[in-house]
User: Fold this.
Amino acid sequence: MIEVKNVSKIYKMGKEKVVALDDVSIKINESEFVSIVGPSGSGKSTLMHLVGGLDTPTSGSILVDGKDISKLKDKQMSKYRNQTIGFVFQAFNLENTQTALENVMMPLIFAGISKKERKDKASKALKMVGLEDKVKHKPSEMSGGQRQRVSIARALVNTPKIIFADEPTGALDSKNGENIMKLLNSLNEEGYTIIMVTHNLDEAVKAKRIVRIKDGKVQEVSKDEI
Assistant:
């Protein structure tokens, strides 16, 4: 499903060059749950941003279902991000002035469907994450765990093939973090491909596969090594 082939990403900072990823190759199959681990600055988030269409590689190719997304035009890339990818962020990235339902409806604005259909789809997504009773609540009226569930519902509303979770439990206490991991695992069992970037090794081992990035290089890791 995802094939990263000889990808490098180099950033220019003044006169210096920073190599975020160095000739990285990795395959991720459909319906896998992969944890990407590594120290800060290792290239974890860079890899996620590249596959998620938020950035482009300096060299190499990124194939998703056989199509090289690094060659997509802006309009095609926007469609890819909107229809193929769902993002879950550590900081939730919710609009505080809008209700849970309105937050989840946001990715559907560009889908060309009626407001009623957007509401129906958003309501179903909130029900999937156990928040059908919070549709009218604003983020300030919910706990951190509930806000992250809204974020996950928003990621699911367009029925994406891939969910990227960037430190999804980083802003949560251990109990809420455990509940979010259970939710991600249940979504994976339903067939969603999940790629999770995390510093939390206790949570990393709950994925089916672990990839470590260090100094821009990728290494497969067995759970016994964590």
Observations:
- Residues 2-225 form a domain with the Rossmann fold fold (CATH 3.40.50.300).
- The mean pLDDT is 93.
- The helical segments are 44-51, 74-84, 100-105, 115-128, 144-156, 174-189, 201-204.
- Residues 43 and 114 are 40 Å apart (CA to CA).
